[in-house]
Amino acid sequence: MGLPDGFLWGGALAANQAEGAWNEGGRGPAVSDVAKYRPHVDPREYAVHHQHTLESIAAAMADDDIAYYPKRRGIDFYHRYREDLALFAEMGFSVLRVSIAWSRLYPTGEELEPNEEGIAFYLDLFSEMRRLGIRPLVTLSHYDPPLALALKNNAWVDRGTIALFERFSRTCFERFGHLVDLWLSFNEIDGIIRHPFTSGGIIDETVEGSLEQACYTALHHQFVASASVTRMLHEMWPESEMGCMLTMLTTYPNTCHPDDVAATQAKERLLYLCTDVQAGGAYPRLALKALEVKGIAIPFVDGDVELLREHPVDYISFSYYMTLTESVRPDAERTPGNTVLGVKNPFLPSSEWGWQIDPVGLRISLIDLYDRYGKPLFIVENGLGMRDELTEDGRIHDPYRIDYFRSHFAEMIRAVDEGVELRGYTSWAPIDIISASSSQISKRYGFIHVDQDDLGNGTGERRRKDSFFWYQKVIASNGADLA
Ligand code: BGP
């Protein structure tokens, strides 16, 4: 029993939360560059993926400040990646998930030729990873569509964006395909409904008609783009694999009252819609009906149905942080989760940000997904954001993080023992980086501490936390030694 030989262990990053160098090397503005750190806003407000207006975007772009726009500076991974990769190799990583910033290759998204400085950066990054025995797992779109596309036509709402994404993807496969054989199309593709601007470049005040319709239109365009680049990858690199990526928001009924169970079933249907399309190859009839009842029509074009059916992904990946419950009671107490607001589960503890900690939920999620699709799975995000304290002698004792991972790994291994085919695990994030939802770095996820505060003050020095050495041991034993 236990994890198979060749199981991939590592960590996950996103360009917009780690690279920094937002206006260097020919990179164009991305939607993440206008994400503002708001000290006065309670980061547990689940809608911190705030929407933007043309005015707030213009104000942000007129301001070259980087203190209150933390994603512009990240943790300077753009300049420090060799040092960070060496630390990941020291932990024994066999895989590292990163993303390619579209606007580093195509600054406005519409250029005919890529920016060669952007190409050079990623070529060196992937080559260095390979040199260290770390396999790249690369996300093509991770919360950073070019801002120019958002301002032009709400990016993914416009069907023309599919062709631009195909051009960007073809460049990535042509220039990096000899170094990268594991790909993901869209990070948490289901999230576009919850944060249209972050995922889809949709500026809601400029949307004609229903915002929800615009989101499902944009989501359909991303489904088509994902299937199209899956076909492209298989034509160019037959041995390489394309995965989809889901926010696994596993939800339990808050009570055994049949209404709570039915409400939970309806919620999970819309959650699984994305994997049903990307892994199953078609929109399920019940999901289409549920959307139709809400007045939402999917803008199918001739050829879409066949493309989706003929080019499903090779594996299913997902982020897992917490679980939620669903209740039909309007007065049910709610708590935030990863970009969502769910009903509190009285049996589970919560992090300081309100995310409910549920290791068993990871086993439930793995079994649910494998049962439903029978395709290999990959956990590409899992971790605990906490405030870490530096001791007098520069140490960081994070037993709470070790406990979180230990309990989640135990359940992950139980799912594998029950027969789930799990290819690998990348923690979110192996090094402290900028939070997607709150733009804080003080919500620390890493096994490696970064000396930087929420406004960017600090030396940027990297320090190994206690969990660094624990994870190193777990990897060396392929999960057998979790003590
Ligand atoms: C997921 C994103 C990641 C990461 C993670 C943690 O939604 O895919 O980019 O940010 O959430 O959330 P946060 O950074 O908001 O704490």
UniProtKB/TrEMBL annotation:
One of its GO terms (cellular component) is cytosol. Signal peptide: none annotated. The active site is at E381 (nucleophile). Transmembrane segments: none annotated. One of its GO terms (molecular function) is beta-glucosidase activity. It comes from the Bacteria. PROSITE patterns: GLYCOSYL_HYDROL_F1_1, GLYCOSYL_HYDROL_F1_2. One of its GO terms (biological process) is carbohydrate catabolic process. Keywords: Glycosidase, Hydrolase. Belongs to the glycosyl hydrolase 1 family. PANTHER family: 6-PHOSPHO-BETA-GLUCOSIDASE ASCB-RELATED (PTHR10353:SF122), GLYCOSYL HYDROLASE (PTHR10353). This is Beta-glucosidase. It comes from Microbacterium testaceum.
